[in-house]
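Page 47, continued from p. 46.
Same chain as before, 167 aa.
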Amino acid sequence: MEKQMLEMMKKMMGSISELQTEMSKMNGRVNELQSEMTNRFEGFESGMTNRFEGFESGMTNRFEGFESKMTNHFEGFESEMTNRFEHIESEMSNRFEQVESNMENRFEQVDSRLDSIDEKLNGIGLQFEEVAKARIAFEATVSKDIRYLKHKTVQIEKDVFLLNPDQ
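Result:
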C-alpha cells in the first residue's frame, strides 16, 4: 500500500513537473512573441518616421500647394495604422486571456486532483486508525481470555490435586 502511495506521489510529482515545463515553454513563447512584436513595431516606427520627415521637407520646398493633400493622406494612413495596431493589440490581448484561462483551468484541474488525493490519503489514515483501535481491542480481549484460561487451568489443577492428593 505504501508502494502504491509512493507511486501515486511520483506520478503526481511528474504531472506537476510536466505542467511546470509546459508553463515555462508557454511563458517563453509569449515573451518571444512580445519581443518580436516590439522589434517589428520599433523598426517600422523609426523607418516610417525617417521617410516621412524626408518626404515632408522635400514636398514643402517643392510643392507648397500639394502639402494639404499629403497631410490628409498621411492622416488617413495614420488612422489606418492606428486601427491596425489596435486590432493587433486586441488580438494579442485575446490570446493572452486564452492562455491565462487555460492556465487557470489547468491549475483548477491540478487542485481538484490534489484534493482527491488528499481525500484518499485521509481515508487511508482513518482506516489505519480503525485498524489500530481494533488491534488494541483485540489485544485487550485476548489478554482477558488468557487470564481467564490461566485462572481456569489453576482451578483445574487444584481440583485434580484434591481428587488425587498423593501425586
